[in-house]
Amino acid sequence: MSDDAGARETTEPLPILLLNGPNLNTLGTRQPEVYGSDTLADVVDLAERTAAELGFGLRAAQTNHEGQMIDWIHESVRQISGIVINPAGWTHTSVALADALVIPGAPIMEVHISNVAAREPFRHHSYVSPHASGVIAGYGIRGYEFAIRRLVDIIG
Ligand code: DQA
Q1: How do beta strands 16-20 and 82-86 pair?
Q2: Any alpha helices (H) in the chain, and if so which ranges?
Q3: What pTM was computed for the model?
Q4: d(CA 104, CA 123)
Q5: Active site residue 139
Q6: Does Lyase appear among the keywords (predicted)?
Q7: pLDDT per residue as tens digits for the range 14-52
Q8: 35 assigned to active site
Q9: Residue 118: which residues within 8 A CB-CB, separation 6 or more?
Q10: 66-75 and 95-102 are packed helices; what angle lies between their axes, rounded to 10 degrees?
Q11: Cβ(19)–Cβ(85) under 8 Å?
Q12: Which residues define the annotated binding site for substrate?
């Protein structure tokens, strides 16, 4: 029997990419009655802990600039296992972001802290949802944890 026989798979999985869109840098002070008092740092901490528990690293980024977000998505090709994204206001406006999310060919989970379906009608439509494996909305920041768990189920 060679030394390699029965060798265990030691390759690290590619990290999960967590993306947060515009205004989410102000979590904690922005409309706390809608978004709660947790900050973006709390979101990233929760996401990192959840990913680590499941054996994944996490890359997290937030921007208020749509082109920056699209560039990050392009740069993620072959670098990540999947994407968890809260597209924030771009959810309801951006064909360009939706087009970009198709490019990596990786599974996507869409997260909203608030229950967008129970809010203004303009928040009821998402350009991202048709490209997502699932949407989690209305669970506060715990939605990020649920999204990572579901993403890892999908990655297999
Ligand atoms: C949001 C909901 C969006 O409608 C809004 O524009 C946001 C945050 C959420 O997390 O509930 O910025 O994505």
Answers
A1: parallel
A2: 32-35, 40-53, 66-75, 95-102, 142-155
A3: 0.93
A4: 26
A5: no
A6: yes
A7: 999 999 999 999 999 999 999 999 999 999 999 999 999
A8: yes
A9: 138
A10: 10
A11: yes
A12: 86, 92, 99, 113-114, 123
16-155 has which fold? Rossmann fold (3.40.50)
Question: Does residue 3 register a pLDDT over 80?
Answer: no
| Rounded distance between C-alpha atoms, residue 2 and residue 8, angstroms | 14
Lookup result for tokens 């909203």:
112
DSSP string across 64-103: S-HHHHHHHHHHTTTT-SEEEEE-GGGGGT-HHHHHHHHT
Cα 149 from chain centre: 11
Atom of ligand 1 nearest to the CA of 86: 13
Give percent helix, percent strand, percent coil of the chain, each to the nearest 5: 45, 15, 40
The CA distance from 85 to 88, in Å, is: 9
Question: What is the distance between the alpha carbons of residues 56 and 22, in angstroms, rounded to a whole number?
Answer: 26
Q: Which residue in 154, 133, 125 sits closest to 85, CA to CA?
A: 133
Residues 6+ apart with CB under 8 A from 90: 21, 22, 66, 69, 97, 127, 128
Select from 19, 27, 114, 129 the residue to mutate for testing ligand 1; criterion: most ligand atoms less than 8 Å from CB: 114
